Protein backbone atom coordinates (compact mmCIF):
# COMPACT_ATOMS: atom_id res chain seq x y z
CA UNK A 1 0.00 0.00 0.00
CA UNK A 2 2.82 2.35 0.95
CA UNK A 3 4.51 1.40 -2.31
CA UNK A 4 1.47 2.41 -4.35
CA UNK A 5 1.17 5.69 -2.49
CA UNK A 6 4.83 6.41 -3.11
CA UNK A 7 4.50 5.53 -6.80
CA UNK A 8 1.47 7.77 -7.15
CA UNK A 9 3.29 10.62 -5.46
CA UNK A 10 6.23 10.13 -7.80
CA UNK A 11 3.96 10.20 -10.85
CA UNK A 12 2.30 13.37 -9.61
CA UNK A 13 5.69 14.93 -8.99
CA UNK A 14 6.89 14.03 -12.48
CA UNK A 15 3.74 15.47 -14.00
CA UNK A 16 4.10 18.63 -12.00
CA UNK A 17 7.74 19.01 -12.99
CA UNK A 18 6.92 18.17 -16.63
CA UNK A 19 4.07 20.64 -16.68
CA UNK A 20 6.25 23.29 -15.14
CA UNK A 21 8.97 22.61 -17.69
CA UNK A 22 6.43 22.75 -20.49
CA UNK A 23 5.09 25.98 -19.09
CA UNK A 24 8.57 27.44 -18.88
CA UNK A 25 9.25 26.26 -22.44
CA UNK A 26 6.03 27.82 -23.67
CA UNK A 27 6.80 31.10 -21.95
CA UNK A 28 10.32 31.05 -23.42
CA UNK A 29 9.00 30.34 -26.92
CA UNK A 30 6.42 33.12 -26.75
CA UNK A 31 9.07 35.53 -25.49
CA UNK A 32 11.43 34.55 -28.30
CA UNK A 33 8.69 34.85 -30.92
CA UNK A 34 7.50 38.27 -29.74
CA UNK A 35 10.91 39.74 -28.94
CA UNK A 36 12.12 42.55 -31.21
CA UNK A 37 13.98 41.13 -34.18
CA UNK A 38 17.56 41.88 -35.28
CA UNK A 39 16.73 44.20 -38.20
CA UNK A 40 18.19 47.67 -37.79
CA UNK A 41 16.37 49.11 -40.81
CA UNK A 42 13.34 48.32 -42.98
CA UNK A 43 13.95 45.78 -45.74
CA UNK A 44 12.01 44.29 -48.65
CA UNK A 45 11.84 40.50 -48.62
CA UNK A 46 10.89 38.56 -51.77
CA UNK A 47 9.00 35.26 -51.61
CA UNK A 48 9.47 33.42 -54.89
CA UNK A 49 6.53 31.70 -56.63
CA UNK A 50 6.20 28.14 -55.31
CA UNK A 51 8.63 28.72 -52.42
CA UNK A 52 7.71 26.94 -49.19
CA UNK A 53 8.05 28.05 -45.57
CA UNK A 54 11.15 25.91 -44.95
CA UNK A 55 13.14 27.73 -47.62
CA UNK A 56 11.68 31.10 -46.65
CA UNK A 57 12.54 30.59 -42.96
CA UNK A 58 16.14 29.68 -43.77
CA UNK A 59 16.55 32.80 -45.91
CA UNK A 60 14.94 34.98 -43.26
CA UNK A 61 17.57 33.81 -40.80
CA UNK A 62 20.43 34.07 -43.30
CA UNK A 63 19.43 37.64 -44.19
CA UNK A 64 19.32 38.68 -40.55
CA UNK A 65 15.58 39.27 -40.41
CA UNK A 66 14.88 36.64 -37.72
CA UNK A 67 17.09 34.78 -35.23
CA UNK A 68 15.70 31.25 -35.45
CA UNK A 69 14.32 29.60 -38.60
CA UNK A 70 13.20 26.49 -36.72
CA UNK A 71 11.21 28.51 -34.22
CA UNK A 72 9.22 30.43 -36.84
CA UNK A 73 8.47 27.14 -38.59
CA UNK A 74 7.26 25.66 -35.27
CA UNK A 75 5.01 28.70 -34.76
CA UNK A 76 3.45 28.20 -38.21
CA UNK A 77 3.07 24.44 -37.62
CA UNK A 78 1.26 24.96 -34.32
CA UNK A 79 -1.11 27.45 -36.00
CA UNK A 80 -1.51 25.32 -39.15
CA UNK A 81 -0.36 28.21 -41.37
CA UNK A 82 2.70 26.58 -42.94
CA UNK A 83 1.20 26.77 -46.45
CA UNK A 84 -0.39 30.20 -46.09
CA UNK A 85 2.53 32.47 -46.96
CA UNK A 86 2.05 34.58 -50.06
CA UNK A 87 4.21 35.13 -53.09
CA UNK A 88 5.56 38.60 -53.68
CA UNK A 89 7.64 41.30 -52.06
CA UNK A 90 6.95 42.37 -48.49
CA UNK A 91 8.20 45.25 -46.42
CA UNK A 92 9.64 43.99 -43.13
CA UNK A 93 9.95 46.79 -40.63
CA UNK A 94 12.96 47.46 -38.45
CA UNK A 95 12.92 45.37 -35.26
CA UNK A 96 9.99 43.19 -36.43
CA UNK A 97 9.46 40.15 -34.21
CA UNK A 98 9.09 36.66 -35.65
CA UNK A 99 5.34 36.85 -34.98
CA UNK A 100 5.17 40.09 -36.94
CA UNK A 101 7.32 38.73 -39.77
CA UNK A 102 5.14 35.62 -40.12
CA UNK A 103 1.98 37.75 -40.02
CA UNK A 104 3.39 40.00 -42.75
CA UNK A 105 4.11 37.06 -45.04
CA UNK A 106 0.64 35.61 -44.48
CA UNK A 107 -1.64 38.64 -44.13
CA UNK A 108 0.45 41.62 -45.14
CA UNK A 109 0.11 43.55 -48.36
CA UNK A 110 2.94 43.05 -50.79
CA UNK A 111 5.13 45.88 -52.05
CA UNK A 112 3.45 47.37 -55.11
CA UNK A 113 5.21 48.92 -58.09
CA UNK A 114 3.81 51.63 -60.34
CA UNK A 115 3.75 52.12 -64.07
CA UNK A 116 2.24 55.22 -65.66
CA UNK A 117 0.83 54.80 -69.16
CA UNK A 118 -0.29 58.24 -70.37
CA UNK A 119 -3.45 59.08 -72.28
CA UNK A 120 -3.08 59.97 -75.93
CA UNK A 121 -0.24 57.60 -76.73
CA UNK A 122 -0.50 55.15 -79.59
CA UNK A 123 -0.52 51.45 -78.83
CA UNK A 124 3.03 51.15 -80.17
CA UNK A 125 4.18 53.91 -77.81
CA UNK A 126 2.48 52.37 -74.77
CA UNK A 127 3.91 48.95 -75.55
CA UNK A 128 7.40 50.47 -75.56
CA UNK A 129 6.80 51.81 -72.04
CA UNK A 130 5.66 48.38 -70.87
CA UNK A 131 8.58 46.64 -72.56
CA UNK A 132 11.09 49.01 -70.94
CA UNK A 133 9.72 48.67 -67.40
CA UNK A 134 12.47 47.13 -65.24
CA UNK A 135 10.14 45.32 -62.82
CA UNK A 136 7.72 43.61 -65.20
CA UNK A 137 8.92 40.23 -66.44
CA UNK A 138 8.50 38.08 -69.53
CA UNK A 139 8.15 38.77 -73.21
CA UNK A 140 5.71 41.11 -74.87
CA UNK A 141 2.55 39.54 -76.34
CA UNK A 142 3.09 37.87 -79.69
CA UNK A 143 -0.29 38.89 -81.09
CA UNK A 144 -0.94 42.35 -82.52
CA UNK A 145 -2.57 44.73 -80.05
CA UNK A 146 -5.20 46.88 -81.80
CA UNK A 147 -4.90 50.64 -81.73
CA UNK A 148 -7.09 52.17 -79.06
CA UNK A 149 -7.70 48.93 -77.13
CA UNK A 150 -5.70 49.90 -74.01
CA UNK A 151 -6.96 52.06 -71.15
CA UNK A 152 -4.21 54.50 -70.13
CA UNK A 153 -3.79 54.95 -66.38
CA UNK A 154 -1.33 54.50 -63.55
CA UNK A 155 -1.30 50.82 -62.62
CA UNK A 156 0.01 49.21 -59.42
CA UNK A 157 1.39 45.70 -59.62
CA UNK A 158 3.39 43.08 -57.73
CA UNK A 159 6.89 42.07 -58.74
CA UNK A 160 6.59 39.04 -60.99
CA UNK A 161 3.71 40.39 -63.08
CA UNK A 162 4.35 39.67 -66.75
CA UNK A 163 4.30 42.21 -69.54
CA UNK A 164 1.64 40.18 -71.32
CA UNK A 165 -0.54 40.31 -68.19
CA UNK A 166 -0.12 44.08 -67.97
CA UNK A 167 -1.29 44.47 -71.56
CA UNK A 168 -4.28 42.22 -70.87
CA UNK A 169 -5.09 44.19 -67.72
CA UNK A 170 -5.21 47.42 -69.74
CA UNK A 171 -7.47 45.80 -72.32
CA UNK A 172 -9.76 44.38 -69.64
CA UNK A 173 -10.00 47.75 -67.90
CA UNK A 174 -11.05 49.44 -71.12
CA UNK A 175 -13.66 46.76 -71.77
CA UNK A 176 -15.03 47.22 -68.24
CA UNK A 177 -15.13 51.00 -68.64
CA UNK A 178 -17.05 50.81 -71.92
CA UNK A 179 -19.48 48.29 -70.45
CA UNK A 180 -20.17 50.77 -67.64
CA UNK A 181 -20.39 53.95 -69.72
CA UNK A 182 -22.02 52.85 -72.99
CA UNK A 183 -25.49 52.14 -71.51
CA UNK A 184 -25.49 55.63 -69.95
CA UNK A 185 -24.68 57.46 -73.19
CA UNK A 186 -26.73 60.29 -74.66
CA UNK A 187 -29.07 58.51 -77.10
CA UNK A 188 -28.72 61.33 -79.64
CA UNK A 189 -24.98 61.05 -80.23
CA UNK A 190 -24.01 59.94 -83.77
CA UNK A 191 -22.11 56.88 -82.55
CA UNK A 192 -23.44 53.38 -83.19
CA UNK A 193 -21.00 51.22 -81.20
CA UNK A 194 -18.56 51.45 -78.29
CA UNK A 195 -15.75 51.09 -80.84
CA UNK A 196 -16.92 54.24 -82.64
CA UNK A 197 -16.92 55.98 -79.26
CA UNK A 198 -13.28 54.99 -78.76
CA UNK A 199 -12.42 56.28 -82.25
CA UNK A 200 -13.95 59.69 -81.61
CA UNK A 201 -12.53 59.80 -78.09
CA UNK A 202 -9.06 59.15 -79.51
CA UNK A 203 -9.41 62.20 -81.76
CA UNK A 204 -10.58 64.31 -78.81
CA UNK A 205 -7.66 63.01 -76.72
CA UNK A 206 -5.11 63.96 -79.37
CA UNK A 207 -6.63 67.39 -79.86
CA UNK A 208 -6.29 68.39 -76.21
CA UNK A 209 -4.54 67.15 -73.12
CA UNK A 210 -6.72 69.38 -70.96
CA UNK A 211 -9.51 67.43 -69.31
CA UNK A 212 -11.56 70.61 -68.88
CA UNK A 213 -11.58 71.16 -72.67
CA UNK A 214 -12.47 67.62 -73.69
CA UNK A 215 -16.27 68.01 -73.26
CA UNK A 216 -16.29 71.16 -75.42
CA UNK A 217 -14.24 69.54 -78.18
CA UNK A 218 -16.34 66.36 -78.00
CA UNK A 219 -19.46 68.52 -78.33
CA UNK A 220 -17.98 70.39 -81.29
CA UNK A 221 -17.14 67.16 -83.13
CA UNK A 222 -20.59 65.78 -82.34
CA UNK A 223 -22.18 68.91 -83.81
CA UNK A 224 -20.07 68.61 -86.96
CA UNK A 225 -20.97 64.94 -87.41
CA UNK A 226 -24.67 65.69 -86.91
CA UNK A 227 -24.47 68.43 -89.54
CA UNK A 228 -22.67 66.18 -92.03
CA UNK A 229 -19.45 68.17 -91.73
CA UNK A 230 -16.00 66.58 -91.77
CA UNK A 231 -14.06 66.53 -88.51
CA UNK A 232 -10.98 68.18 -90.09
CA UNK A 233 -8.68 67.18 -87.26
CA UNK A 234 -4.91 67.60 -87.76
CA UNK A 235 -3.97 64.59 -85.59
CA UNK A 236 -5.89 62.33 -87.97
CA UNK A 237 -3.66 63.51 -90.81
CA UNK A 238 -0.54 62.83 -88.75
CA UNK A 239 -1.73 59.32 -87.90
CA UNK A 240 -2.17 58.56 -91.58
CA UNK A 241 1.35 59.82 -92.29
CA UNK A 242 3.38 58.50 -89.35
CA UNK A 243 0.99 56.37 -87.25
CA UNK A 244 1.03 59.09 -84.62
CA UNK A 245 4.77 59.68 -84.35
CA UNK A 246 5.98 63.32 -84.41
CA UNK A 247 6.81 64.78 -87.81
CA UNK A 248 10.42 65.78 -88.60
CA UNK A 249 12.16 67.16 -91.64
CA UNK A 250 15.23 65.63 -93.32
CA UNK A 251 17.49 67.38 -90.80
CA UNK A 252 15.68 65.81 -87.86
CA UNK A 253 13.88 68.99 -86.90
CA UNK A 254 10.23 69.11 -85.86
CA UNK A 255 7.97 70.39 -88.60
CA UNK A 256 4.35 71.23 -89.32
CA UNK A 257 2.05 69.43 -91.73
CA UNK A 258 2.74 69.88 -95.41
CA UNK A 259 0.01 70.87 -97.83
CA UNK A 260 0.57 67.60 -99.70
CA UNK A 261 -0.16 65.69 -96.46
CA UNK A 262 -3.32 67.66 -95.79
CA UNK A 263 -4.49 66.92 -99.32
CA UNK A 264 -3.51 63.23 -99.22
CA UNK A 265 -6.44 60.90 -98.76
CA UNK A 266 -5.87 58.18 -96.17
CA UNK A 267 -8.20 56.08 -94.04
CA UNK A 268 -7.63 58.55 -91.19
CA UNK A 269 -7.37 62.00 -92.78
CA UNK A 270 -10.64 63.62 -91.72
CA UNK A 271 -9.99 66.57 -94.03
CA UNK A 272 -10.47 64.13 -96.92
CA UNK A 273 -12.97 61.56 -95.61
CA UNK A 274 -16.45 61.82 -94.15
CA UNK A 275 -17.28 60.59 -90.68
CA UNK A 276 -14.81 58.90 -88.39
CA UNK A 277 -11.30 57.60 -89.08
CA UNK A 278 -10.95 53.89 -89.83
CA UNK A 279 -9.51 53.13 -86.39
CA UNK A 280 -8.65 55.01 -83.22
CA UNK A 281 -5.55 57.18 -83.59
CA UNK A 282 -4.39 56.68 -79.99
CA UNK A 283 -5.54 55.21 -76.70
CA UNK A 284 -7.95 57.67 -75.06
CA UNK A 285 -8.41 58.02 -71.33
CA UNK A 286 -11.58 57.84 -69.32
CA UNK A 287 -12.24 61.58 -69.56
CA UNK A 288 -12.27 61.64 -73.36
CA UNK A 289 -14.50 58.57 -73.55
CA UNK A 290 -16.96 60.07 -71.08
CA UNK A 291 -16.94 63.34 -73.03
CA UNK A 292 -17.93 61.79 -76.38
CA UNK A 293 -20.65 59.64 -74.81
CA UNK A 294 -22.34 62.58 -73.07
CA UNK A 295 -21.21 65.82 -74.74
CA UNK A 296 -22.72 69.16 -73.72
CA UNK A 297 -24.60 71.31 -76.23
CA UNK A 298 -22.48 73.77 -78.20
CA UNK A 299 -22.82 76.12 -81.16
CA UNK A 300 -19.10 76.01 -81.86
CA UNK A 301 -18.06 74.16 -85.00
CA UNK A 302 -14.44 75.31 -85.36
CA UNK A 303 -11.43 75.37 -83.07
CA UNK A 304 -7.67 75.76 -83.23
CA UNK A 305 -4.86 75.64 -80.67
CA UNK A 306 -4.06 78.93 -78.97
CA UNK A 307 -0.39 78.07 -78.45
CA UNK A 308 -0.77 78.18 -74.66
CA UNK A 309 -2.08 74.70 -74.05
CA UNK A 310 -5.70 75.52 -74.83
CA UNK A 311 -7.88 76.25 -77.86
CA UNK A 312 -9.76 79.08 -79.50
CA UNK A 313 -13.33 78.20 -80.49
CA UNK A 314 -15.40 79.80 -83.22
CA UNK A 315 -18.96 79.63 -84.57
CA UNK A 316 -18.17 81.03 -88.01
CA UNK A 317 -15.53 80.26 -90.63
CA UNK A 318 -14.37 83.87 -90.77
CA UNK A 319 -13.72 83.92 -87.03
CA UNK A 320 -11.99 80.55 -87.27
CA UNK A 321 -9.71 81.67 -90.11
CA UNK A 322 -8.48 84.56 -88.00
CA UNK A 323 -7.74 82.17 -85.15
CA UNK A 324 -5.90 79.79 -87.49
CA UNK A 325 -3.74 82.55 -88.92
CA UNK A 326 -2.76 83.62 -85.42
CA UNK A 327 -1.88 80.09 -84.42
CA UNK A 328 0.13 79.30 -87.57
CA UNK A 329 2.20 82.43 -86.94
CA UNK A 330 2.79 81.34 -83.34
CA UNK A 331 3.71 77.82 -84.50
CA UNK A 332 6.27 79.08 -87.03
CA UNK A 333 7.80 81.30 -84.37
CA UNK A 334 8.15 78.43 -81.88
CA UNK A 335 9.70 76.10 -84.46
CA UNK A 336 12.15 78.83 -85.46
CA UNK A 337 13.19 79.10 -81.81
CA UNK A 338 13.83 75.35 -81.67
CA UNK A 339 15.97 75.46 -84.79
CA UNK A 340 17.95 78.53 -83.79
CA UNK A 341 21.57 77.74 -82.82
CA UNK A 342 22.33 78.07 -79.14
From TrEMBL:
Q: Can you name this protein?
A: Endolytic murein transglycosylase
**Reported function:** Functions as a peptidoglycan terminase that cleaves nascent peptidoglycan strands endolytically to terminate their elongation.
InterPro entries per UniProt = MLTG-like (IPR003770)
One Gene Ontology biological process: peptidoglycan biosynthetic process
Residues in a coiled coil are none
Give the EC class as a word: lyase
Report the source organism: Hyphomonas adhaerens MHS-3
Q: What family does the Swiss-Prot or TrEMBL record give for this protein?
A: Belongs to the transglycosylase MltG family.
EC number(s) of the enzyme? 4.2.2.29
Q: What highest taxon heads this organism's lineage?
A: Bacteria
Q: Which reaction does it catalyse?
A: a peptidoglycan chain = a peptidoglycan chain with N-acetyl-1,6-anhydromuramyl-[peptide] at the reducing end + a peptidoglycan chain with N-acetylglucosamine at the non-reducing end
Keywords (alphabetical) are: Cell inner membrane, Cell membrane, Cell wall biogenesis/degradation, Lyase, Membrane, Transmembrane, Transmembrane helix
Question: Is Transmembrane helix there in the keyword field?
Answer: yes
Swiss-Prot/TrEMBL site (Important for catalytic activity) positions: 207
Amino acid sequence: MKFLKGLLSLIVLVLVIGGAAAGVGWVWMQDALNRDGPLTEDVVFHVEPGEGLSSVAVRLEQEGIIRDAKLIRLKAKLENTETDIKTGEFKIERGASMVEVLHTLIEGKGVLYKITLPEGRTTAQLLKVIEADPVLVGDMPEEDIPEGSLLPDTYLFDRGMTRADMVKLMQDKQTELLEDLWPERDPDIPLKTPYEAVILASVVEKETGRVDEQPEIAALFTTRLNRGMRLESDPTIIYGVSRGEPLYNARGQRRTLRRSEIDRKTDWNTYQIDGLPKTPICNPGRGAIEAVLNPPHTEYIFFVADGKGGHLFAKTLAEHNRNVAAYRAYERKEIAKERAPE
